[in-house]
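Board notes (copied after class):
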Amino acid sequence: MSVCEVLRYAAFTATPDGGNPAGVVLDARGLTRERMLEIAAEVGYSETAFLEAREPAGGDVRDFDVRYFSPAIEVPFCGHATIASGVALAERHGPGMLVFHTASGAVPLETSLIEGGHIVATLTSVEPHVSDVSDVDAVAALEALRWRREDLDVSLPPRIAYAGVRHLVLAAATRARLARLDYDFDALDRYMKARELTTIDLVWRERQDRFHARNPFPVGGVVEDPATGAAAAAFGAYLRALEIVEVPARVVILQGEDMGRSSELVVDIPRGQGGIRVTGRAVPIP
């Protein structure tokens, strides 16, 4: 059985008890898919990233093949584990430009030093897209969540948003509705698997540039993610496609508050087409 070092980081936070914990394996050479899934289950976080460095191609950019596993499944892309991995690499080799080659495509990742000597990482998603949701599908999601139509903010309509993986975006009309998360785990799991969804992105708009989010993740064997970089990128695409913000725009997403693991995700939305940028810190978990 292959032995490897698993690092543990909290992403989108400045404290180990905040953000979303991620496992990081910086050298996954020789690990089979089955062993990666086993390690992810042993770690028990919503995702663990497995990196394998590519041969240097010259220049200042370092390339890695990356796979992501929850305790239950492999996922094509994971934002918080990408941020955690970037910070882990920067702490060992210095900040700079990276490219993560994922099942969803190439994801540029920039790491840099900020005030106080801390490292921040910014990923740029693959080309995103947004699609409509049928009324039947929306109602089925609400039933699994134990929400009613009246719980929704009609100014932020349901959509499927993709920026590496698929998310159903549903907007709560009030912060109190968002705070109450008591869904039917098995029903939502079945609903999401049938539609190839990675999370349900539940959001509430505090103001034009500030949102709160919760992300149920039953397909990964996890009740909820306290910070979801992939969903943040998808939500940025949603805001652009529906012209809810004037681009270029920067919005802040606060997540994990109702779980006691507060997270901050900074989302930069460019004009026109192109990937969405998501920025955050990450810190080792002792």
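Comment from the instructor: Helices lie at 33-43, 79-93, 135-145, 175-179, 185-194, 229-241. The longest strand covers residues 105-114.
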